[in-house]
């Protein structure tokens, strides 16, 4: 049953997602109820229906995180895809019309063999904090504002905070926790710090632009915002100063961009958990979703 303002209810959207995943698992795109003129992309490139991962998938991993936006008729999924040579992180966004047909399918697949940045020994696990309903939900616009503020904080990061972080906020990227993680800090020292501490230090000065930001899916009940966009790196910055006075060398010295899919958990007016998948793409690559509609 749908309620006022809803296109489809949560269970109906999850049913469409489950049907899509069943079809994907078997590599049979024809089993999906596609709307006329449906659009689908894989790793920021528009493809014909059935192309790409549909021809190489062996199965799906056990990790499964689902969320839905009943106002816009969209449903999202974080999981993993198993292909011949590797298991890869997956972000999936579906847009569904009132009749239950898929009008849009956007996939971000983190194939480590293709990536310019490698995360060793990735682990994928469902975070209970992401699956639980928000204890103190925020208005929809405020949730997007806080998520966008995260990107404002990351862009040319100089220590200024443009959002609100829960003191225990953690971030998982491409299956690896990149905050408060002493093991990963042996490779990336900043990973020893928490979310806000990393930004207050001004560690990410080399992120030149957070471009083409989209916030297509807001799960108000669970306090989740799914965002897409690009982090542009010009590679020009050689050294920069942290807010504690130290001068450090930039780890980014070539032009490239990250295509990012990022999930924010908002509760009590703060970001309390982040999960992201991202891949390296050509510098300043545009989004086909900005021009296709």
In a nutshell, what does this entry contain?
The protein has about 290 residues and is an alpha+beta fold. The protein has helices at about 10-25, 130, 140-155, 180-185, 195-200; strands at about 35-40, 45, 60-70, 75-80, 85-95, 100-110, 165-175, 175, 210-220, 225-235, 240, 245-250, 255-265, 270-280.
Keywords:
single chain, 293 residues, alpha+beta, Nuclear Transport Factor 2, Chain: A, 2 domains, six-stranded mixed β-sheet, 5 helices, 14 strands, 38% strand, globular
Q: Would you give an account of this structure?
A:
This protein folds into 2 domains: 10-110, Nuclear Transport Factor 2, Chain: A, CATH 3.10.450; 128-290, Nuclear Transport Factor 2, Chain: A (Roll). The longest helix has 17 residues, at 10-26. With 293 residues, it is of the alpha+beta class. The protein is built from 5 helices and 14 strands. It starts with 9 loop residues before the first helix and ends in a 12-residue tail after the last strand. It is globular, with a radius of gyration of 19 Å. The strands form 3 sheets. The protein has a 6-stranded mixed sheet with strand order 2-1-6-5-4-3, with helices on one face. It has a 6-stranded mixed sheet with strand order 8-7-14-13-10-9, covered by helices on one side. It has a two-stranded antiparallel sheet with strand order 11-12.
């Amino acid at each position: 049953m749908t309620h006022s303002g809803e296109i489809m209810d949560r269970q109906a959207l999850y049913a469409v997602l489950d049907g899509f995943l069943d079809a994907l698992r078997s590599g049979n795109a024809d089993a999906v109820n596609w709307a006329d003129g449906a659009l689908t992309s894989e790793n920021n490139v528009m493809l014909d229906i059935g192309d790409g991962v549909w021809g190489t998938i062996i199965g799906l991993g056990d990790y499964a995180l689902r969320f839905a936006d009943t106002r816009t008729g969209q449903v999202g999924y974080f999981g993993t895809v198993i292909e011949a040579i590797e298991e890869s992180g997956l972000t999936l966004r579906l847009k569904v019309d009132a009749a239950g047909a898929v009008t849009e399918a956007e996939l971000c697949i983190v194939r480590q063999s293709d990536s310019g940045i490698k995360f060793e020994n990735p682990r994928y696990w469902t975070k209970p904090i992401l699956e639980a309903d928000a204890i103190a939900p925020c208005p929809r616009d405020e949730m997007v504002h806080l998520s966008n503020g995260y990107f404002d904080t990351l862009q040319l990061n100089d220590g200024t905070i443009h959002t609100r972080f829960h003191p225990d906020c953690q971030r998982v990227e491409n299956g690896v926790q990149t905050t408060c993680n002493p093991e990963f800090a042996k490779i990336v020292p900043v990973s020893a710090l928490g979310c806000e501490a990393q930004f207050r230090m001004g560690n990410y000065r080399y992120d030149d632009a957070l471009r083409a930001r989209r916030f297509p899916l807001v799960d108000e009940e669970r306090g989740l915002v799914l965002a897409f966009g690009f982090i542009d790196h010009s590679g020009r910055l050689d050294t920069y100063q942290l807010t504690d006075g130290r001068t450090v060398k930039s780890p980014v010295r070539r032009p490239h961009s990250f295509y990012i899919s990022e999930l924010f958990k908002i509760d009590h007016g703060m970001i309390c958990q982040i999960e992201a998948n991202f891949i390296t793409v050509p510098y300043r690559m545009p989004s086909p979703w900005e021009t296709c509609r």
